[in-house]
TrEMBL record, chains A, B, C:
SUPFAM superfamilies: P-loop containing nucleoside triphosphate hydrolases
UniProt keyword annotation of Nucleotidyltransferase present: yes
Active site: 50
Record protein name field: Bifunctional adenosylcobalamin biosynthesis protein
């Protein structure tokens, strides 16, 4: 069983995804795969708030790049928080789009129960710098690839979730 | 009874919210709380169009900052048009995020029937200036806070509304 | 019968609209109105991928500006791919907003069966340049105008479609 939570910045998707996997896990302690790599003060504060919310409900794994490797060894269920940061890290380390999507495809074929979180970034004006456009395209392709493998897909807005699949 | 209309620029959310509150009011004349403060030519034209559409259907109150004070004295039902502009005004006048959200929380606990309009701004690429990022975060938190107090939440797009709650 | 597919960049709206019109056409070969005018390398690659996907399933017409003229002569069903590019071309050639919307209104009153694709661009932070703001406003007005004439409107995200009307 795989589920995608997508939505905008501060749409409540992380909170909704956490509540959802805890309910699905039915008492088992789920894994929490944190993909954040680059940390400034602003980010540190966000991470602190996220950690506080997780408390002791999850087993946290921190891995910014090797998504497939971690998921292959993870018995699940696992919350991947988040795919957007992982895409960003991959681009930063020079990975090619085709390789990024191939790794994601392989990860989605694992039997492990997963809840994935991804920022929807394509609903604003098209950015005028090429790197941002590349990211928007890659993010949309990743969203489509993930959604195709998911039994459920939720679009989040204002702390609410709307089931698209 | 509280209702949130959210959506993008020119999604039809204001028009839909006006039609909705007029229908809910059932013949009573609702209040219209206009929060716009800073007015250039472009804005003046938008206001003119909005006013023209309202005609004599509403009792208009103009208040850019003191949302809670106005709503405490308003018997309702009231259309708050819009929260996004009020957030913008608060930041301009140097209000702290915690205080802004506390005032909003207090306003949402009033018994007055309200329809609130808020721009969804978090579904594009994350802006590269810190002030815009702060605004996007604040807007998302405000949306979640409001939606938690609303019986109904609508996401608007292409002049149509989709009920999320 | 008219249908609008809207959504963000790489939301799958073009692919979904193509599959939809082919299913609706029931064996007839639909027209494909391609509105792209300005072509750089990035765009050329996008067009190549689109063409490849269409293969021999459509009769392609290329017209960047004269939307109404082409649609008046088209027996349909026709996929208009896309309105966003047509709006962009019209602005580039100096057309006034009122004239653009009047041409669109006339096109939507034609009896021809149409499926239209339009980028939703209004859900990010409001752009700080006036031309981009003008485009966002025009795009939203066009979306509302089209949706008002459509029997069905779909919001697309992550390769999935959500029926709004």
């Amino acid at each position: 069983m795989k589920t995608l939570f997508t939505g905008g910045v501060k749409s409540g998707k992380s909170h909704l995804a956490e509540a959802y996997i805890l309910e699905q896990a039915g008492g088992r302690k789920p894994y929490y795969l944190a993909t954040t790599e680059f940390v400034d003060d602003e980010m540190r504060e966000r991470i602190r708030i996220h950690r506080q919310r997780r408390q002791d409900a999850f087993v946290t794994i921190e891995e910014p790049v090797n998504l497939l490797g971690v998921l292959q060894r993870c018995p699940g269920p696992v919350l991947v928080e988040c795919i957007s940061m992982w895409l960003n890290n991959q681009l930063y380390h020079g990975a090619m789009e085709a390789d990024i999507l191939a790794e994601l495809e392989a990860a989605m074929q694992l039997p492990c129960a997963m809840v994935l979180v991804l920022n929807e970034v394509g609903l604003g004006i098209i950015p005028d710098n090429a790197l941002a456009r590349q990211y928007v395209d890659l993010s949309g392709r990743a969203a489509q690839l993930i959604a195709a493998h998911c039994e459920r897909v939720f679009f989040c807005c204002a702390g609410l979730k709307l089931q698209m699949k």
